[in-house]
Structure formats: C-alpha cells, structure tokens
Amino acid sequence: MTQTPLLSVRDLRVEFPTRRGILKAIDGISFDLKEGEVLGVVGESGAGKSITGTAVIGLLEPPGRIAGGEVLLKGERIDNLSQQAMRKIRGKRIGMIFQDPLTSLNPLFTIGEQIIETILTHLPVSEREARDRAVALLEEVGIPAAADRLNAYPHQFSGGMRQRVVIALALCAEPELVIADEPTTALDVSVQAQIIRLLQRVCRDHGTAVMLITHDMGVIAETADRVAVMYSGRIAEIGPVRNVIKAPRHPYTVGLMGAIPSLTGDHDRLTQIPGSMPRLDSIPAGCAFNPRCSLVMDKCYRDRPDLVQAGESRAACWKVSETEEAAGR
Amino acid sequence: MTNASQPVVEVSGLSRTFDVSKPWLNRVLERSPRALLRAAKDISFSISKGETFALVGESGSGKSTVAKMVVGLLEASAGEIRIEGVDMRSRRQAGAEMRELRRRIQMIFQDPYASLNPRWRVDRIISEPIRAFKMESSEEAISKRVGELLELVRLHPRDGAKYPHEFSGGQRQRICIARALASKPEFLVCDEPTSALDVSVQAQILNLMRDLQDEFGLTYLFISHDLAVVRHMAKRIGVMYLGRLVEVAESRTLFKTPKHPYTRMLLEAIPDLEMTGKPRRPVEGEIPNPINPPSGCAFHPRCPLANERCSREFPKFRQVGDTGVACHAVEEGRTTV
After folding, report:
1. Pairing mode, if any, of strands A65-73 and A76-77?
2. Staple A270 to which of A59, A186, B203, B311, CB 3.0 to 4.6 Å?
3. Closest CA to B15 of B242, B226, B230
4. A262 vs B232: CB contact, 8 Å cut-off?
C-alpha cells in the first residue's frame, strides 16, 4: 500500500482511571481504512468497539483518555488536536451516526434548522444554497416531501425516518469518513434493511469511507468490505469480510459465527462459547480469550498474541501462529 | 399425563384494547373522541405438550401483550385462554384450582436487569416461588432445592449468597430461568428472553432452554423479533402484524414457503450471513400507528400485492395447505408481484 490510508490507527490505547486503578478499555489496536472503504467493527458488549469510534472522533467521555498511540487522518495526527481544531474536523471531515436517532437530534429545533446550521458551519455557502442543499440531501435519503418536512421537529418523525435525517446530517458537509455506531440496532428488522441499504448507497455515491460499528454479523456481511472482530479491547481478527465470515481463523470468531442461529442449516444445538467477556478490571494475563478458548495452550496464559498474517486475514492467536509457521516451513 | 390430542394451551379470539384517550376534560374541551389502541385482535392458537410455539413480529405488533394475557398479567378484553382445559378467565374457580394453575405457568422476561430485585440475594429470589406455593416445608429442603435449581441452570449453589448485580447479563437470565423453574411449571412464556444478550451468551441460553425442555417436557410460548432465533427454537411460528396473526405455520414450512406478503418481506429483510449475494427487494414503509390502523388489511399500504379489496375488507384467517394465513392475495392466488 503506497497510498496513505484515509484513516490510520496506530497502537491506540484508551484508559479509564478509576478509584480502583486504571481500566484499559482499548489496549493497543491498529488498523487502516482506505478511501471509500467500509470497515465493519464487530464485537460483543464491552469489547471496546464504541470506544474505538469515539476515540477516533475525539469524543471520549472523561475520565476516559487516549493513553497512547496515534490516530492519523490522511497522514495528519488528529488525536492530539485541541478541542477547537477537532471541532473543525468533526462534521466536516468525519461524520458520526449514533445508535439512537432521538438523542442525536436536538428536540427543540426543526430538522431543517439543524441541517442548515451544520452546512453553514462547515461549508462556504449562502443560507439560500444551504437550504437547497438540505432539501436535496433529505430527498437523497428518501424523505418524502422534503421541502415541507424541513420545518418538522424530530418527534414528528418515526424511528426509521429519524435515522434517515441523522444520516443526512452526518453527510451534509461531505465528510471523507463516517463513523456509524450501531446505526440500525434501535430499528425494526424491515426498517433496518432500508437503512443499511441507504447508508451503503449514499456512502458509495459520495465516496465516503465508513467505519461501521455493530454487534450484528448479518449487517456486516451485507455492508462491509473488511471486518475487525474485537474482543476485550483488542482486535482478535481482521480481514476481508468473506474470509472472516466463511473461514474464521481466531477461535473467538469461530465460536461467534457458530453461535448465530442459522436461517438455512438445521442445527440442533448452537455452538456455545462458555463464560462471557471478562470485565475490564479482571482481564486475564496472556491472551484475554484464554478462559473461554477450547484450543488453549500454556503459552496463551503467559504471552499476549499479536496479529499475524493468516491467509488474507490477520488473527491474534498463538494457535494460528503455530499452524501458519508449520505451513510456512 | 394429558392425552396427546388435548393441547396444553388453547387461545381463541383473544383481544386486548387499551384506552389511550386524553383525560375527560380535554376530550370535552377539544371535542376529541375516545382513542382506543387495539394491541391484539382475534388471536387464536394452540400449543401441544412439549412443543415450542413462537410469536414473531416487529415492535408494536402486540406479541408481548399476548404473552402477558396468556400468563394472566393482563386481562383480556375478549376471547378465551384455556390451560389444559381450564379457563383462565373464570373467576369462580378462584382458590386452590386457580393457584395450582398459576404454579404451572411461569414467565421469563426480556430484561434480566429489571426483572430481579436488586436488594434480594439470589437464593431468596429463587426460593420465593417455592415458599409462595408452599412446595417445601423445611428451610433445609428449600435451600437444597435452590442449590439444585442453580445447578440446573449451570450456576454454582454458592452463587445463591450473591446479589444480582454481581452477575453478568447471561448469568442473570439463568437466575430468571431458575426462578421460573422453581415452582415446577409445565408451561413457560418467554418474552424476548435473549434479546438483551450478546450472541455468544444468547447461544448458551437458547441451548439451556432446549436442554430444560427435553429434561422436563416443558411447553414454551416463545416471543421474539429475531427470526433466526425463532427458527432455531420453535416448531410452529405465528407471525403478528399490528395486533393480528397474519400467518401460522410449521417453522420449516414458514421459512421455505412463506405465504403472507408480510412474512415474505420479513424474511427478505434479514441480513444474509451466507453471503450468497442474492438481491433483496427493498421493503417500503414502516409499521403504521396502531391507534389509527389502515382500513381493511392493516398491511395493505406496504403490500406489493394489495388491491382495492385489501383496503376495504379485512381478510379472514383461513387454512391454505399446511399454513394458516390472513390475506386476500393468497386466497385469490395473486401471489406473484
């Protein structure tokens, strides 16, 4: 890869200092995102996927802080910028879509005011142009009678429609990257499908890269180009979506895929991974997955594995390293 | 026990209406009429012993309302619920018989964080049904039974001394299951038991529920919005839309040959994990407001097969092959778009 990636996260660490010690929510993750690419970030609750998103966009809730590593947007560091400078990037270069559309819209302003304000803040256009742009955007995200709906308040929209408005809001300044944190989780299945397709289409048309954070493998399978599977603040496996879903390498990914009830096959029992994700104050030494892993070896209790190339994916697992080495020699 | 022909649960014509009108004074001043919300209308199904029947639908379809009526947490506006032939609504049978009936029905709720008393230790939570139904006499027997129940749901008997907050979501749901099993029920109503849980934990709970079903011959009414989970768990499935049952079929049949356009739409909307790359037809619209449901068939504004009759006349629920379905288009055979 000679081209500078759009977003590059290098050895990012996020900590939460508490009375009982420092909790490591993110412990050294690295990944790249190319222009126009859709990267899925999956994991169960507590894996650190949302924290990764908020750390990239600089919205970590105090006392959370970036304890190390770098976040580079087109080669420039953005993790150490001032609040002032970061505000210029947020919305303009990186858009954000949150899980609950009701909380990410201001209930006291019409959606028109909110979109126009955002456009005026970030783009050198007149109010007239901003208004036209807002209407065009709302039409693009599939809101009927967009010009009239500009004067409506968020509560006058249904959940799915609200999420469309939020997507329009995230895209209104033509950002290069959109971070979508569980954009469809609060929605019904039939509406979820509409929103996923919309997000996919709009981002492709605008050439926007997407970091799609979700716990739903199905959503990832439909949308993402590459996927990063997170476990306990680390990336367990990252690779092209097809490889990770069809031929997972990390035992956690294998278990996760087996745990999803299938719509086609007939399984009497689901594969289950015993136990649950460790809490942040009791992450085991070595590989954090070792208490739940069926392939655990002595080494897993001692040393923490790093990502190693395994086919087209990369996985952080001693067993995978071993088999890869054996195959390599 | 009961002979095979008699179903454990028989629900017929079950309806529930909620009055969501404004206060009387506002109604008089604003001249607004009473507003009624039909949360469930004319629901009929039966579940035979040891079977899992699932109700599936999107939010607002009335599936939880039905669940609450079946366990008796909510009174039905009309219709009948019979558990092993005993009418749940007949208040005359109060006393011993009703009590015995309630013992045999238990419920597992969606949110394991909200359904356990945070101030009680786990052993007290689990022993409550045992005490309430006076199933054991001595304290010793009760604590022994609690230990057994905890082991049954793959927890340690020592966990009984802890408080709910010391457990993870999946473990709390296990505690809920242990509590539900404490009164030795035969019929469990599970309202979205795994939707608050992560996938890997969901798999543990679903497996546990199936094991318990095999072990005790439990009958489940399983409520969920997740079609994949429902397919995994249920033998027969009822699909609900805006308070009505639109299709009831064997799980296999439903997924292979869905009849009702809404069922077909739901099945198409599921993200495809197999990555076959099959094109998905986009679904139009959202669930309408249940206070003002569309006339005729409630699904007609979103239905690709709708015609004038659908907007005028409500479709009757009828049997087509192995499937029960309420749709004019299916009845008339116009099933291709």
Report:
1. antiparallel
2. B203
3. B242
4. yes
* Per-residue pLDDT reduced to its tens digit, B51-77: 999 999 888 888 989 999 998 888 888
pLDDT at B305 exceeding the cut of 90: no
What is the ipTM for the molecules in this complex? 0.80
Chain A residues contacting B via beta carbons under 8 Å: 44-45, 158-161, 188-194, 196-197, 215-219, 221-222, 241-242, 245-246, 255-256, 258-264, 267-274, 276-277
In Å, how far from its chain's centre is CA B329? 27
Closest CA to A243 of A226, A259, A263: A226
Does A304 reside within a domain?
no
Select the residue of A159, A215, A216 nearest B271 (Cβ to Cβ). A216
Q: Which residues pair with B324 in a beta bridge?
A: B248, B319
Looking at beta carbons, which residues of chain A come within 8 Å of B268? 193
Owning domain of residue A217:
7-261
**A38 lies in some domain:** yes
Share of chain A above pLDDT 90, in %: 49
- pLDDT at site B196: 83
Q: How many CB atoms lie within 10 A of CB A51?
A: 22
Candidate CATH numbers 3.40.50.620, 3.30.930.10, 3.40.50.300, 3.40.630.30; the one for domain B9-256: 3.40.50.300
Find the chain B residues whose C-beta atoms sit closer than 8 A to any C-beta of A: 58-59, 168-171, 198-204, 206-207, 210, 225-229, 231-232, 255, 265-266, 268-275, 280, 282-283, 286-287
A221, A255, A268 member nearest B273 (Cβ) = A221
| CB spacing of A276 vs B200 below 8 angstroms | yes
Nearest Cα residue to B132 out of B91, B100, B90? B100
Q: Give the CATH number of the domain where residue A245 resides.
A: 3.40.50.300
Q: Answer yes or no: is A68 within a domain.
A: yes
State how many domains chain A has. Answer: 1
Q: Which chain A residues are within 8 Å of B299, Cβ to Cβ?
A: none
Give the largest Cα separation in chain A, rounded: 67
In chain A, residues with a C-beta closer than 8 Å to the C-beta of B202 are 259
Q: What was the pLDDT predicted at A102? A: 74
How far is the alpha carbon of A8 from chain B, nearest alpha carbon, in Å?
28
B255 CB neighbours in chain A (<8 A) are 263
Q: Write out the residue limits of the CATH 3.40.50.300 domain(s) in chain B.
A: 9-256
Residue A271 lies in a domain: no
Is A188 close to B265, i.e. CB distance below 8 A? no
Rounded Cα distance between A259 and B7, Å, is 32
Q: pLDDT tens digits for A200-214?
A: 888 888 889 999 999
- How close are the terminal C-alpha atoms of chain B, in Å? 49
- Banded pLDDT at B1 (limits 50, 70, 90): very low
